[in-house]
Amino acid sequence: MRDDSTAPRSSAQLLRPVLSLLGVIGEHRGLFWRSTLSMTGFQAFAAVAAGLSAYIASIVVTDPDGTGLAWLLMLALACAVAAHGAFVWFESWMSHVMAYKVIDGLRMRLHDAIERISPGGIKRRRAGEVSGAAMSDIESLEWFYAHTVGAALNAAAGPLVVVAALFALTGPAALIPLAGVVCLLVVPWLMGPLQARQGKAVRDELGELKAASLEGAEGLREMLSLGLADRQKRRMLDLTGRVQRRKRAFALRAGAESALADLIVAVTTIAFLVALAAAVRAGDLAPALFPAAVVLLTAAFAPAAGIFPMFQRLGEMSAAAARVLDVLNAPATVTDTASDAPPRGQGRGALRFEDVDFAYEPGTPVLAGLDFAVEPGEHVALVGASGAGKTTIAHLLIRFWDPDSGRILLDGNELRSTSLAEARERIALIPQHPYVFRGTIRSNLRIAAPDAAEEALWEALENAQLADTVRDWPGGLDETVGEDGATLSGGQRQRLAIAQAFLREPDVLVMDEAAAHLDGLGEQALARAVARIQAGRTVVVIAHRVSTIRHADRVILIDGGTVAAEGTHHELLERSGEYRSLLAQAERPGSAPQTPAIETTGRR
Amino acid sequence: MIHLRLIPLARNAYPLLALVVLIGLGLSAAAIGQALVTAEIFAGIVTGLSLADITVWLVLLAAALCVRPALVFAREIAVHAVATRFKSALRARLLDAQAEAGPIALGRERSGHRQTLVTDAVENLEPYFGRYVPHLAVTALTSIAVVVALVVVDPVVGAVVGAVALAVPLAPRLWDKVLADRGDSHWQAYADLNADVVDSLRGMPTLKAFGAAGRRRAELARSSGGLLASTLRQLKVSLLESGLTALFLIAGPAIALAVGVARVGSGALDATALFTVTLLSFEAFRPFKELSGYWHAGYFGVAAGRRILPILDAPAPPEPTAASRSPELGAGAAIAASGLGFTYPEAETPALTELDFTIDAGSTVAIVGPSGSGKSTLASLLLRLALPTEGELRLGGVPTADLTREQCTDTAAVVSQAPLLFSGTVAENLRLVDPGADDAALRRALAAAGAAEVDDPRRGGLETPVGDGGALLSGGQRQRLAIARALLKDAPVLVLDEASSALDARREAEILNALGGRRTREGIPVTTVIIAHRIASIRRADRILVLDGGRLVESGDWDGLIEQDGLFARLERSQRTEAVV
Question: Which CATH code for domain B333-580?
Fold first, then answer.
């Protein structure tokens, strides 16, 4: 995946999308603070344990015979050790719960966003692509928010707590560790943009490597038969070399950053040590406190290291957060409205398009002044070249979008003022490539009709000519239809979609006919199922087959987003030259189909 | 232990790995030195020495502290060097293994999955070998060294710290045993839920059309909530492990101190040694803490290694025991199958069943059928990427089992749908197959493949660059260039596996027709096998084999098959009537 961000100039700029998205997960604020504070807790108790240990040792060294106080403090040490363990456990529990809730919350928001924009997309990317990218972004962001941001906060807060304790113990000398900690935190902040650029360069080269690798895997037979294996290997190793050169720049910077951090620690430690020794000499500091203070200094630096993992991934996370925000903020394609259409059963399914204009993107109209009407019960075939706007007409009918201007009327009522639920109850769409959900036949049918009784499901399958097939399966209705319905043939998917449509009993049926499938005997069953579902309903079918066109009551030829001609098949053959040439293409033997006729799912 | 099987994957980087370990040990030594010096300084200050008295120690401390940045920087560079070294070698080994075993031994994993082995899995091994493995060694050696040092200071304290240090890696293992595999089931449940969400996103238009998006969302939210509730309790218990480890790490030095104080009390230990005891015991446990920071590197590395190992071990089809005769392709049957069947490893149903056919030398034969009907599997068997599991396949009269892989690949030239082109010029890509071919031969091949246009003098003729992977050419040009390259191989059998799918049907038919009736330079008639999607373009094939579900359901010439009115005729009709867009 490539980042679409331009080169960032500062860490603040990189943080912006990350922080905006943090607002999105604001509902888990309580969890976030609990997890972050328990991290502060275990870090503080680790510091306390270290400081106490040094202090106990000092007491015993100063007075080897009077170990009473030492044993008392040992008890406190034991408590600090136990508290540290408890906080570590609590923190890892809380951060796991939070990770879960963050990812769950983001997934649900993504679900809502994709519902708003489907089947469209954003920035020229289709909804499917967008959601795929967003899902993997969310997974990396989950790690970032649940396990990194809290550590980064503690990187700043933890040292400050310890420095405050040092102030109490040693007075102004604690300014030295304060300065050290600030320097330590500034280093990754300043390096942030460089880090982000280098990270992006590495990911880009990795993308090239993956592309080359995929080509090699796909063309393995050709590679072997033509003796290209060595050449491909060389290419892969060259690309590996390029990735590694990018990574070297990254490693040099990371190494310099760590070295610089260690140098800061070294200088601070020596300076503090000398200052404290001077204070002891001057009698400003009890000698027994000296070891404790020095050990605490080490404890102050420990959490500061927690900021590095965050900055190492900030560039990547910033780009991911920006992409996710893009999706989450995408506006809805239609606004739902209260229904003033007559309840179902009163209308009979009359459709009318009145001067409808529509464009997915301003400036490139898809439909322009589209005008046509369909009588109740009439079967109309939409015909036209690819890109003429046929699928858009189907999508407007199901209210995936609303017209930019003009009206669509269902039984005389404007579709726009019909609620989405109502419109989709009365008008059903059978898409060209029906989607089959993970689950069973039953669960897929229930998506169309959640409350349907068992008998109703069988009746729908019966009508869709799928009942016999389902009965033959060992699982029957509960047969699993695998990932992406891979176990169903193209024809069976179509028939399952028809069964779903039967369960909805729509007044109007919109069908995007399958261009081709190869299902042996299934073809006839499908034809019977189509005939049944169409009987007694208003039907608008986007036709790809001559037989479908011949059987339609009326054919509407769509060209350039408007009606070019309409009439029966024979009338159009006589009247329209355009229609004749379109059909002639089909009838000419050996002509070129636009899409491969054989299904290409599940390649071996 | 899985690590022992994985480490040899980086065998060519052993010296560099040793260097990383050495640098790590150097860092440990600096830290131990720092602890010892600091203990002296503490003892000095607490017992009332002046700053001047401890100057030597301060200088030593500064030295120890300043060694660190240099070593840390060196470690980053060395880690990078390890990665560079093992990655190239391992990728080369994986690519060789894939080429050796062929696509079939790797199972029916999609090629998209397979490529992630060569890329992602190897990348995931980088932090494993660069950080995790060296630090395992550093942790073990440092802890042992510190424990030994403590034993020298005081045997009892040393023994106690040693015992706790042993418990750090061992206790979680016991914990794992107690919990058995309770953890795995909930990760599976999470994965399932995630798959359901992805499913829902992909099928969103359908959900919207059925007004079911809201319902579906509510269901997902409910099962997500349920999953969280049911796993929370379990998580609470399984995560005790991390608390326990943290407890040991910090309890170790505290216990050492307590024992030390007791030993001072009993007079067995000098009081000033307490600082040494405390600070040294910190160092015994510090490497463990760093190691837990590399936990993910270890986890993902092991996961990647588990996927890589079987590929390196995947067996190629056994070579024939005795040298046999060469395939005779001049006349008779070039390719013949009798009772041929093939079942992929671990597959339940056969991909090919009881195939019987012969393809005459010099003829053009098309194989059609729905995807999944076994067409490409047949091409793999022809190249001897696997041996038939039933019956036999003869190439030039000799069963492929009795031929070497080389004999088979020498005989057949295969062109795939997505051809493999390399950055460089048109001529360079063509000469990969026939290094000695002159320009005229290249132009003849291009012309025969209908690709004369890529030899455009205005763009550089044969020296026109094609871009990486042929990116500067159109899909159709890439395919035709690949066909031209295959022709240069001058092999007696040419297999076009949907090799012209990006062309329009007329163009495709022209090229396929022109490929018939050729002879190799030695005068052997070329047998052409066309695996095709589009029926229209194979009209002139001498014979058409129709596969369905791995079986040969029909065969004959175009007119005969149309007359039979079977699967082929249906296919043809559906492709014809579809043209109304």
Answer: 3.40.50.300
Q: Is the pLDDT of residue A100 over 70?
A: yes
Q: Which residue of B has its CA nearest to A82?
A: B247
> From A47, which residue of chain B is nearest by alpha-carbon distance?
B250
Q: What CATH number should be reported for the domain holding residue A285?
A: 1.20.1560.10
A602 confidence band (pLDDT: 50, 70, 90):
very low
* pLDDT band with cut points at 50, 70 and 90 for residue A599: very low
> What integer pLDDT is reported at residue B388 of this predicted model?
92
Same domain, A359 and A319: no
pLDDT tens digits along A321-375: 988 898 888 888 888 876 555 555 556 889 999 999 999 888 889 999 999 999 9
What local confidence, expressed as pLDDT, does residue A476 receive?
Answer: 87
pLDDT on residue A588:
47
Helix, strand or coil for residue B358?
A: strand
Q: Which of B334, B357, B349, B333 is nearest to B389 (CA)?
A: B349
C-beta atoms of A60 and B48 within 8 A: no
Low-confidence ranges of chain B (pLDDT < 50): 578-581
Given A61, A71, A438, which is nearest B272 (Cβ)?
A: A61
Residue A429: how many CB atoms within 10 A of its CB?
A: 25
Looking at the structure of chain A, the number of domains it has is 2
| Cα-based distances in Å from A404 to A94, A117, A179, A334, A359 | 49, 16, 62, 11, 7
* Closest residue to B235, CB basis, from A93, A259, A450: A93
A562 and A455 both lie in a single domain: yes
**Cβ <8 Å between A112 and B217:** yes
Query: Which residues of chain A lie closer than 8 angstroms to B435, CB-CB?
Result: none
Q: How many residues does chain A have?
A: 604
Give CA B361 to chain center in angstroms: 40
DSSP three-state, residue B533: coil
Does A428 fall in a domain?
Answer: yes
Query: Helices in A382-450 by DSSP H: which ranges?
Result: 390-397, 420-426, 441-448
* Mean local confidence (pLDDT), A43-48: 93
Whether residues A284 and A378 fall in one domain: no
Tell which A residues from 428 to 447 touch B, by Cβ distance under 8 Å. 428-429, 431, 434-438, 447
CATH of residue A467: 3.40.50.300
**Predicted local distance difference test score (pLDDT) of residue A5:** 46
Nearest CA-CA distance, residue A242 and chain B, Å: 10
CB contacts of A483 in chain B (<8 Å) are 195
User: Is A119–B62 a contact, with Cβ atoms under 8 angstroms apart?
Assistant: no
Which chain A residues contact residue B578 at CB under 8 A?
515-516, 544-545, 586, 593-595, 597
B222-266: per-residue pLDDT in tens? 988 888 887 777 777 777 877 888 888 899 999 999 999 999 988
Contacts of B409 in chain A (CB under 8 A): 224-225, 227
Average pLDDT value over all residues in chain A: 85
Q: Domain limits at A370?
A: 353-587
The SS3 call for residue A288 is coil
- For residue A88, being part of any structural domain is answered with yes
Q: Is A532 on the interface with B (CB under 8 A)?
A: no
Inform me whether the C-beta atom of residue A317 falls under 8 Å from chain B C-beta atoms.
no
Tell which of A226, A268, A395 to mutate to test the B interface (max B CBs under 10 Å).
A226
Exposed, middle or buried, B8 (CB in 10 Å: 0-12/13-18/19+)?
exposed
What does the pLDDT read at residue A522?
Answer: 59
Record: contact B235-A600, CB cut-off 8 A: no
At residue B425, φ and ψ (nearest 5 deg) are: -95, 170
ipTM above threshold 0.90:
no
Check if A574 contacts B (Cβ < 8 Å).
no
Instruction: Give contacts of A90 with chain B, Cβ < 8 Å.
Output: 243
> Beta A480-481 vs B527-531: how paired, if at all?
unpaired
Amino acid at position A409, single letter: L
DSSP reduced 3-state for A381: strand
